[in-house]
Design goal:
- There is one protein chain.
- The protein is of the alpha+beta class and about 140 residues long.
- It has one domain.
- About 15% of the residues lie in helices and about 25% in strands.
- It is built from three helices and five strands.
- The chain has a five-stranded antiparallel β-sheet.
- Strand 3 and strand 4 form a beta hairpin.
- The longest helix has 12 residues.
- It is globular, with a radius of gyration of 15 Å.
C-alpha cells in the first residue's frame, strides 16, 4: 500500500505510485515544473491518452485535440518514472488551449519544483525494467 495518496484521485492504493514531472518553458531560459504522484488508474487517464504516434515527416498536431501545432505550439514535457519499469518520457506539441488545461491539471496537488540551473539540464540515466503491475497494464519504458 502506498502511504502517499495519488495526486489526482487522492486515494492510497496497493501499488506504488509513479512520479510524473510536467515541465514547460513560460519564457525563454525559464522552466516551470510540477511533480505529481499518480496511481496506475490516474496515469492511464491523464498521461497515456497524450502518447500519440509521431511521424517526423508529418505536420505536428496537438496530441490532445488533434489540431495543427506546426506554426504555433506550446510544448509540455511529461517525464514519468514508473515503479519497476523505468522512465517514460513524452514531448507534447500542444495547442494553446490544451496546454493551458494540461498545465493547470499538472499544478493540481503537484509539487512545484525549483528551476534547474542551466548547467544541470540534461537527460537522466535509464532505469532497468522489471515486471510489475505497470508492465501488466502494457506500460513499458520509452526509448
Amino acid at each position: 500500500m502506498s502511504l502517499i495518496p495519488c495526486s489526482t484521485c487522492r486515494k492510497r492504493g496497493a501499488e506504488k505510485l509513479c512520479q510524473v514531472t510536467w515541465a514547460w518553458n513560460p519564457r525563454p531560459g525559464e522552466r516551470m515544473a510540477y511533480r505529481q504522484r499518480l496511481c496506475p488508474s490516474c496515469f492511464i487517464q491523464r498521461v497515456l491518452p497524450l502518447d500519440k504516434p509521431f511521424d517526423p515527416a508529418d505536420e505536428l498536431r496537438c496530441p490532445s485535440c488533434g489540431i495543427s501545432t506546426e506554426h504555433e505550439m506550446f510544448p509540455v514535457y511529461a517525464t514519468s518514472f514508473i515503479p519497476g519499469s523505468g522512465k517514460y518520457a513524452l514531448e507534447l506539441p500542444l495547442c494553446g488551449d490544451c496546454a493551458t488545461n494540461i498545465r493547470a491539471a499538472a499544478t493540481e496537488n503537484g509539487e512545484l519544483l525549483a528551476d534547474r540551473e542551466p548547467e544541470s539540464r540534461g537527460q537522466a540515466p535509464r532505469s532497468t525494467p522489471q515486471e510489475t503491475a505497470w508492465n501488466r497494464l502494457g506500460i513499458v519504458p520509452r526509448e
